[in-house]
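Intended use. Records like the one below are meant for learning the mapping from a protein sequence to its folded structure. Do not use them to infer anything beyond what is encoded.
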Amino acid sequence: MRTRRLAPLVILGLLHAYIGARLLPDLPAGFGVRLGGALLLLVSYALMLAGLSARSLQPRSLADRVAAAGLFAVSLFSSLFVFTLLRDFVLLAAIVALPARHVHLLESMSALLVVGIAAFITAVGFAGARRRARIVSVDVPLANLPLALQGFSIAQISDVHVGSTIKQKYVDAIVDAVNGLKADLIAVTGDLVDGSVHELSRHIAPLARLRARHGAFLVTGNHEYYSGERAWTAEFRRLGLHVLLNEHVVVSHCGAPLVVAGVTDYSAHHFNPAQRSDPAAALSGAPLGAAKILLAHQPRSATAAATAGFDLQLSGHTHGGQFWPWNLFVRFQQPFTAGLHRLNHLWVYISRGTGYWGPPNRFGAPSEITLLRLVAGPLPLPV
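Structure written out for the chain above:
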């Protein structure tokens, strides 16, 4: 068991050593710069190790600062590793195709380029992560939409991940922006928290200020289960959010019914067998012919949602990949990465998330607060 715990730490150290061995000797700089680079990699490794054990530190403010430093180091390390690896593939091809003198020049310039690109992505991604999420407007065309529901608006937030680096001030700004949209309904599609109610209740409290004509509805994400779903469900309800656990409500808007359903997270049964995600159960007893919207944290719920007869599914979970190049790999775990998609007669909208998880980096996958508007449209053709 001890060996199993040590193995990831050893691998992490070896990857830092790989970056140093491949970049530092080729940098067009003196010994002092190379020594500084080696020390930076050593500090990065130390910060990442400290971040892994930060939760045991007291007081909590110190634990959060150590965790934040470790996560920032993860962000820089990630980009350095990816581009160092890409550089080695390029150099391998160059050794085969170019004269030795050209390869030597490429080694020097590319080492400097890798450091510059990694620093740029880390800095720009950090700024993107820490700013308030942008507003993204999306029209969703639904067949046979009643005239009374034309223009019905839904403000969606998802994947805020309140925890060691996202606090009350960040959540306050989100709530102010959502309320400013004056939406008919608010949808919160999971992963609001990373920590216990005791640790984070003060920072999640601004959600009590969410205001919409028909209220704010929430479904659980996988991180609610990591953090104690039962306690968080009770806390969300205390704050005035309507938590939907494989169930629905019927909203009457200007005389027209709209079914708003929600399912537990796709993985909920691993934590509580009684909470297995079930779109069909969530729709049980709903009025026939009404427009039907499902809140489901993971896009993977879409197949069951389409079979159950929903018109629109709102999801999150993917973060749109959060930062390059990881956005390229989401499709191997989820059917959709971000934006509006179609599965047979079902529209699926996947938010890129309103906060971030782990490394404070939003490069190439900006966070969002989504304003969706229902509009009348033709029935989509099956795909």
